[in-house]
Amino acid sequence: MEKLTNQQILDAGLTDWRRLSQALFARFRTGDFATGLAFVAAVGEAAESAGHHPDVTLTYPRVDLRLVSHDVGAITSRDVDLARRVSEIARGLGVPAEPAGLAEVELALDTADVAAAGPFWAALLTGSTDAHHGDDVVDPTGQVPLLWFQDTDAHETPRQRFHLDVWVPHDVADERIAAAVTAGGRVVDDSEAPSFVVLADPEGNRACVCTVLGR
After folding, report:
1. Which residue of 29, 36, 84, 105 is most buried, as measured by CB atoms within 10 A?
2. Which tens digit of pLDDT belongs to each residue from 37-60?
């Protein structure tokens, strides 16, 4: 299957779905558990028919879904087709989408020695060094956020080495940044916008608001 570019995904017109870091995400407000269960059952039938399966999280008021072609390691036409079918199911059940509520958090660690740090963090976060892949620690169960290692020069001076990457839909990034600033934060660096904007809290701790645009 061919990997889709960000522009191809945007051109697909998936109004209910947004690409965050590596996958398509959607949130549907079901309102109650019974409706959510019916929705998930219908999505499950569609997934079985397509031979392609989303990650699904069912909670009392909502259902969250994540779509990516694991065998390719990217978003493909299979994901777009199933995303459209899931949206059709949601409309048929009267379940509205909430794309503005989507977010994905990744952990980033500055390090000058990934080979040394990687196995430690893999073992700590997942219980196995097998979760360390190149510059990432990936929990196969999805229980903990992805941790990626940002290359840096060796240094001993105390500085912030961990930061959060908060992935949000590209069309709500400005609103999210404005909310953080209103709540006492400040913009440290927006030179890479809309790809990412660096923010700091009142004590100087930094985080990045990230989107797929400009990548």
Report:
1. 36
2. 999 999 999 999 999 999 999 999
53 and 142 together in one domain: no
In a domain, 215, yes or no: no
What is the per-residue pLDDT for 155? 72
Q: Which CATH number goes with the domain that contains 72?
A: 3.30.1360.20
Q: Which residues contact 142 (CB under 8 A, 6 or more apart)?
A: 55
Same domain, 194 and 144: yes
Q: Which residues pair with 186 in a beta bridge?
A: 200
User: What is residue 157's predicted lDDT score, i.e. its pLDDT?
Assistant: 64
Is residue 1 one of the residues assigned to a domain? no
Domain range holding 71?
6-101
Q: Please state whether the predicted TM-score (pTM) of the whole model is above 0.85.
A: yes
**Nearest Cα to Cα of residue 105 among 137, 64, 146:** 146
**32 and 86, same domain (yes or no):** yes
Distances 80 to 73, 136, 171 between C-alpha atoms, Å: 15, 26, 19
Q: Look at residue 138 in the predicted model and tell me its pLDDT.
A: 94
User: What pLDDT sits at residue 140?
Assistant: 87
Largest alpha-carbon pair distance within the chain?
59
CA 163, 156, 164 angle in degrees (round to 5)? 0
Residue ranges, the chain, pLDDT below 50: none
